[in-house]
Structures are given as structure tokens and as C-alpha cells.
Amino acid sequence: MFHDLKKAVVGTAAATALMAGVAGASTAQAETELTMYYPVAVGGPLTEIVDGMVTDFMAENPDITVNAIYAGNYNDARIKALAALKGGEPAQLSVMFSIDIYDLIEQDAIVAFDDIVETDEEKAWLDSFYPTLMENGRTGGKTWGIPFQRSTIVMYYNKDAFREAGLDPETPPATWDALVEAGQALTKEDGSRWGVMIPSTGYPYWMFGALAMQNDQVLMNGEGTETYFDAEATVEALDFWQSLGAEHKVMPEGTIEWGTLRQNFLEGKTAIMWHSTGNLTAVKENAAFDFGVAMLPANERRGTPTGGGNFYIFKDATDAERSAALKLIRFMTAPERAAEWSMKTGYMGVSPAAYETEILQDYVEEFPYAAVARDQLEFATAELSTYQTGRVRKALDDAIQAALTGSKTPAEALGEAQATAERLLTPYR
Amino acid sequence: MRHVIGWLLLTPAAILLIAFTYWPIGATVADSLFSRGNPIRPSRFIGLENYALMADDPIFWQVLWNNALFALGTIPASIALALMMALMVNRALPGRALARMAFFTPTILPMIAVANIWLFFYTPDIGLIDQIAGLIGLPGHNWLGDPDTVLGAIIVMTVWKEAGFFMIFYLAALQTIPPELWEAARLEGAARWTYFRRILFPLLMPTTLFVLINAILNSFKLVDHLFILTKGGPDNASNLLLYYIFETAFSFFDTTYAATLTVVLLLVLAVLSLVQYVVLDKRIHYR
B62 CA to chain A: closest CA distance, Å? Predict the structure, then answer.
């Protein structure tokens, strides 16, 4: 009765459909209850969107109840989900950081999707996503994570500022040199506008993954057991990042705050920002000026890491719960939902089929920037993820910040980070 | 028989203390002697190896040093400010209630809210501080992005947040001091400063001790703002011991090393409170 009541109050829009479903469910079918934690890492009313999708799912599947719990940022979501598991509270699936995969495997917390899917159709579903988005979800020949709120880094730029500086607003910088050049034209002497801002708090390693990739260097191997922090091309990439502030004076020196960067861009304090595509809809709705979105510039090649959250299913779930969780995940990542999700947030449609839906095609036609992230996937690589990923990531983050604030040279800082990573990863080889 | 009743009366408090204080402390110390376990390699007893690891960990030494600076920066300043504010609003003053409330407001706000407000004070270019500096022609500064200023910026915010809270205790203490003392002092020809130094301040010492203990504890306990402002960065320049413990336990999943760090935190706090009770208590007049 309680569930029926609870269902009845969830979402007025789907109420009629829901009531019909409840009437059917309360008689015979056994209920499966799922608890799911999910994070939000960028601004905007993302919780409402997720809750709305969950309500729709329950309307379609009256025998399944889903408690979707918003759990803060990626770190918080992982902490809460694992704490719930350890404390014996139910949690059958969660959206967590795609790069948590090795830690979750090591903690024996998750189950591979290969062990849950049964039919050929379900097996084919595992291959229906963009392969690049699966890189962070697959290891050891198994699929552990299904892409959901996935992003790449894109370059947002202020077209009005481009015009004012005498630059062509339709040709955003496509190389590192062009970025510096444009930055110099865009930076105002009096400090009222900077040319470029690349955030260096929160997720510095992520931005750095893009710069390294553009210099044709990945940061780790596919098994999560080796890092390449002190490779020549990696050091060069950090040299370049550091030179934007220290040498070319097109970016403020010191670290740049992830959380306030969008505001900086919206207030015109920087003409270009690198940020997650997850900000796209928020920028679109709040920019008082003409803005553009472009792929990140290239040095040796174009490049960006993918980012964001994947669905995981926990090992503790019973068979019935696992198949219900699979049903929910399939619902949430189905092309139409992925399309809707992408339009409302700016995150990517996770499968090619999502971009073939009519709504998203119409949307892309009217707002072409919605497809930049997808087009950039061709050049994308996995996000930094290794065993002991928290510590390895922190070593790299610290190195980047030390170089950007000038307390160490890039070579020195990255050398130390590599030594730390070696020490941490040796036991896993 | 009286013993039995005495112990019985103690039981409820003792159960709570043991369950939520002493047992966890004991468990923490025990945990710190084991290796980090996972399903593949179970945790095993390694003696003091975690402590040796800690002694070699440069980040540990840095956060400890940062914490010392943070304590030195926040404690005397917030106590002095609290006392000044209390003296100010203890007098007959037009709009006294308003002034008291204004001083107390930062205390009401949760630390996370405070950090979010100050984040927009400190943000370069669009932040309040830079905008005001811009008006009078000063260059902006990346307060939280510069390792030389980040800890100072956090200290200023913490003092702002804490002083109002301590003011309340001083204000309460000031109300209990009989006005005859000031009248008598005046008859004897004592100046205001002499009265404050020789009479008022010594009488306030019990309050000062209480406030001091709280301030010291807070300087090690208060890390909420780091989650919002800096996450300990840049390059650990604003990282504090408790935040590092949190990172180790929940970001690195290394609970045994986190336990080791926690033991250090407990020792630091225990030693500091012991010193205060033993040394300062002798110099305090309780009435």
C-alpha cells in the first residue's frame, strides 16, 4: 500500500498511466525495489531530469520501484554508494565516475554486464554505444560500465569578443599556435578580459588529458597499470599549458577554479574557455552574447578525453534485481531518452542511434553545436583511470598545479608524479 | 552499596562515551597497524609500517605544517576580534541589538554556505574583492589560485566565521562582571586600559580558556570549506590534516593509512588540551 501511495504522488504528468499500472501491480506481481545513486557534476536542474526519467520508467514498469538518490558530485556518489553497500543498505545500481572502474573491481563491488545479459539481443545492446565511450567501461575483456552522462571537453568562445578583436567568429583557433595568437588578440591590457581559461582545480588531470592527447600522447595504458606522466610529449603539453599564463599572458597565472569558470565566461571575463559539454545547455540559456562551440585545437593531432558517469550494477543485487536494473539502464540509455537527455543537458547522446532520432536531428539542425561533442569523439581517448586511481590522479593533479603556480618546473613536477605512480602501480603488474 | 549506585548512575553516560568515543579510538589505533586490504589480498598485521610510511610522506608533513599555520593564523585573531566585538556591543550603544546580530550572523551560516559566498569574494576578476580593487585602480589577484595567498585567504574567512561565535561567550561573561568593579577602579584613578588588563581580562580568563580550547579544536576539525574552495590545492598549499584523512579514506580507499593519520590527529589534540588544562588552569581564577 505504501508503495502504491508513493507511486501515486510521484510526478503528476504520468499520473494516469501510473495509476493504471499500480492497479495491475498490486494484485499479483511481486515488486522489485531498486535503489540508485547518481551524481551531478555541472550546474543546472539535472536532478529534475533524472527524476523525470525514472518516473517514466516506473510508469512503464509497474512491478519495479526505483529510488533514485541524488548524491552530490562524483566523489560523493561513490562514497555514498559504497558506504551504503558496506552498511548493508540496499543499492543495486548507481551512476558513478567512469574512471572508478578499477577501484570498484578491486573492491569487488560490481558485476560485469557480460554476466547479466542473456539473450543475443541484449549482448548486441552492449555494442550499441560509441566505442570510445566504452573505453573507460571495459577492461579484462569484460564490460563493467554502461555510458550515461558522458562528455568531452569542448572549447566555448565568445563570438562578440572575436569580432571586437578583429578575429573571424566562424573560424575558432584550430591549433595551439592559433590559440595563442587569438588569445593575444583577445586579451585586454587592463585585465578586464582574458584570452583563454582552462580550469585547473577540481579535475586538472582531465584537461591535461586533452593537452597530452593533442600532443599525441596518452597518459596511461589500457590495463590501468602504467602511466606515462614523464614522457617527453607529456612534459611538452604541460609546458604549453603553463606558458599560456607565464609566457604568453593570455590566461591568468595560478590555478583557475573549475566551479566559477562558467560564470567568468558568461560575464565576458574570458573570451575562450575549455569546459565539459555538460555545460552546453546552461551556457546556451544564460549567455547574453553570441557564442560558439568548437572542438579543442590540435598540436600533433586533435584530442580530448571522454569524461563523466557510467551505470554500474552492484554484485550484492539478487538475480531479479539485476535484471530489473538492466531493464532500467536499458530504458535510461535508449536512443530517445539519450537524445532527450542530451538536449536538456549538453551531455552526449551515448549511441549513434541517439543522433538518428528525429528529435535530436531536429535539435542539431537548429543548434549545430549540440553535435560538436559527438564529432569530436573521433579524436577522443579514455579518461585517466588506473588502479589506485585516486592516489595516481592526485599525484598528477598536484604536479599540474605545482607547474601552473610556478613552484616546480613541468619536467620536475611530472617526474615526481610518475615516480609516485610507479610506486603505486608496480604491485598490479 | 553506594559504589553500586554510583556506577549505575554513571552507566548511561559511560555507555555512550565508550560506544561512540573510546571504542572507535581503540579501533582506529588497531586499524592503523594493518595493511590496506582488498578482496584479492586481505589485510594483514604490519606493525608500525604505516607510521614509517607516514614519516616518509611529504604531503603528510605539508598538511601538518599547514595546519599549524592555520591554527596560528585563526586562533589569536578570532579570539582578539571576539573580545573586541564583545566589549563594543556590551556598552550602551544605539542599535545595540542590531550590532550584536550583525556580529553573530556569520556563525549562523553553515560553513559550506560561507565557503560558497567567499568563493565569489575571492574569484579573480568577477569576485567582490577584485571588483573593489578594480574601482580604486589596484590589480586583481588570484587569491585561491596562488599557493602564497591561498592559506591566508582561508584563514581570513575562518576568522570572520568564528569570531562572532566566540563573541557570544565573552558577552555572556561580561554581563556577569559587577559594574561596581569599574566604579571602584575609577575611584582609585585607574585608566580604562589598566582596568581591562588588571581586572577585566583576568576575570574573563575562564571564558578565554573555554574559547581557546574550542578555537584549537576547530582549527583541526573545520575543513568543510576546503571541499568548496580549494580541495586542498593548489598543490596541497591549503590542504589540512583532516581533509587529507578524508581524501585518504574515501578517495583513495586506504582506510588503514587514514586510521594512521587519525591517530596523529588524536594525539595532537590530546596533547594540546592536556597542556591547556595543566598549564593554563593554574593561572586562572575561578570564582
Answer: 13
Output A334-338 pairs: Cβ under 8 A, ≥24 positions apart: A337/A53
**Predicted ipTM of the assembly:** 0.79
Which of A260, A387, A397 best probes binding to B when mutated, by most B CB atoms within 10 angstroms? A260
pLDDT of A40 above 70: yes
- Min Cα–Cα distance to chain A from B14, Å: 25
> What is the pLDDT averaged over residues A265-281?
91
CB atoms B119 and A401 under 8 Å: no
Distance CA A91, CA A316 (A): 8
Using CB atoms, which residue from A192, A201, A388 is nearest to B231?
A201
- Nearest CB to B125; choose among A269, A388, A402: A269
Helix (H, G, I), strand (E, B) or coil at A225: coil
Q: Work out whether strand A146-158 and strand A138-139 pair parallel, antiparallel, or are unpaired.
A: unpaired
Q: Are B277 and B260 in contact (CB under 8 A)?
A: no
pLDDT band at A92 (very low <50, low <70, confident <90, very high): very high
Q: Structural domain of residue B79, as residue ranges?
A: 57-281
**Res A15: pLDDT:** 41
Q: Give the start-to-end residue ranges of the domains of chain A.
A: 2-150+307-373, 151-306+379-428
- Superfamily assignment of A151-306+379-428 in CATH? Periplasmic binding protein-like II (3.40.190.10)
Q: CB B147 to CB A200 under 8 A? A: no
Give the E-state strand segments of A58-217 in sequence order.
64-70, 93-97, 110-111, 138-139, 142-143, 146-158, 194-197
In a domain, residue B33? The reply is: no
More confident residue, B138 or B40: B138
- Cβ A252–B139 below 8 Å, yes or no? no
> In chain B, which residues have their Cβ closer than 8 Å to the Cβ of A201?
145, 230-231, 233-234
Of the candidates A384, A207, A394, which has an alpha carbon nearest to the alpha carbon of residue B250?
A: A394
Which of A79, A399, A405 is nearest residue B147 as measured by Cβ atoms? A405
Residue B137 in domain: yes
Q: How confident is the model at residue A265 (pLDDT cuts 50, 70, 90)?
A: very high
Whose CA is closest to A312, among A91, A70, A93?
A: A93
Number of domains in chain B: 1
Residues of B in contact with A404 (CB under 8 A): 234
Q: Please give the CATH architecture assigned to the domain spanning A2-150+307-373.
A: 3-Layer(aba) Sandwich (3.40)
Residue A5's region, left for phi above 0, alpha for psi from -120 to 50, else beta, is alpha
Q: Which amino acid is at B212?
A: L
Give yes or no for B125 touching A (CB within 8 A): yes
Whole-prediction pTM: 0.83
Measured in angstroms, the CA of B58 and the nearest CA of chain A are apart by: 11
Q: Under an 8 Å CB criterion, which residues of A touch B?
A: 75, 78-79, 103, 106-108, 191-192, 194, 200-202, 252-257, 259-260, 263-264, 267, 269, 388, 390-391, 394, 397-399, 401-402, 404-405, 407-408
Preceding omega of A427 cis (within 30 degrees of 0):
no
What is residue A1's predicted lDDT score, i.e. its pLDDT? 38
Domains A2-150+307-373 and A151-306+379-428 share a fold: yes
> pLDDT tens digits, residue range B143-154?
888 889 999 999
Q: How does residue A30 score in pLDDT terms, banded at 50, 70 and 90?
A: low
Return the CATH number at B224.
1.10.3720.10
